[in-house]
Amino acid sequence: MEKHRHVFERFATFDNLYDGYRKASKDRRYQGCVLRYTDHLEENLINSVNQLQWHEYHVGELHQFYEYYPKKRIISSLPFYDRVINCGDYNVLWPIYLKSMYEYSYGSIDGRGPLKAAFDIQQWMRNAARMNGDWRVVKLDIAKFFFRIPVDVQLRELTRPLDDPDMVWFLETAVRADGRPLGLPVDCTDVTTAERISGVGMQCGSIISQMTGNVVLTPLDHYIKRTMHVPYYARFMDDMLLLVDGKKAAWEAVEEIDGYLRENLGLQLNNKTAVIPLGHAVEFVGRKISPEKIELRRQTSLGMKKHLRYVREAYACGEVPLEYALSVIQSYLGLMQGCNNDALRNQILEDYVLVRHSQDMLDAAE
Fold it and tell me: What percent of the chain has pLDDT over 70?
């Protein structure tokens, strides 16, 4: 593997961190934390460069909160000052990591994404259907992925292509964040009450966690393709899908992948693993994929209708602006792109009528 030197020299510069500021503030420039940072932009960037170069940088206190849709999750948000530095870090490191990324890894990689994943998988299904054999689709998911990756594994994989002690120092500082425990028990069912564990897990929700998640699983990608010789294999972060000839061979592949995860990465598969006959619709990247068609998952379409109904009612009461209401419908139309959901799309467009009630109508309703 090629070793990269002088990476820190390109990272800890005013120009690179200014570019990091532009990335971190994109679509957020009117948030209070961004405005406060921008008021003293040059001073903040110079301070960041000095702290990094003198090894005096420390990650600020994480703000942790919960998201409840589509499932309950804990998110860690960095102060904006640290987000700027992380975006600068991403600028110089991501091109290095991308060189060794597996071709059919789709999560958080420009030019790929869930729609391309769905199209590629459907084509693989069609290819397999034309061949002799008892082809099976294998769905795999890693248990509590972002909250179970050992810190030493994160640092091992992030620093593997680097020959730069200063960059290694920064990565260890960034991964350990503000020092609080970030892990969760593998059998955790409620993140709001679970004990947090030291030595595993990461600041889920940041750009560095997206990058780390991909980097950590890259060795698994190459093991599955080069050592196991699985003909069709795709990954979207910690969700994996394989096409394997034969039911027995499919379950043997599951066992071997779980063994690799446990032995080399300190991770394990969860109990959602499934082996499905080719031809049945398979849920992956938020869609139901079969050789014949691609559709949205039922849970996704129901959640979309519920959200659109809420936005329509909130707009009528003046609680959300027109720009937001339009952005929501555009986002969902984009989600349906490439799917065989014409009836759903037509129904949504027919029902999504935005009407702003007058104050007199609102008063009468009360």
Answer: 96
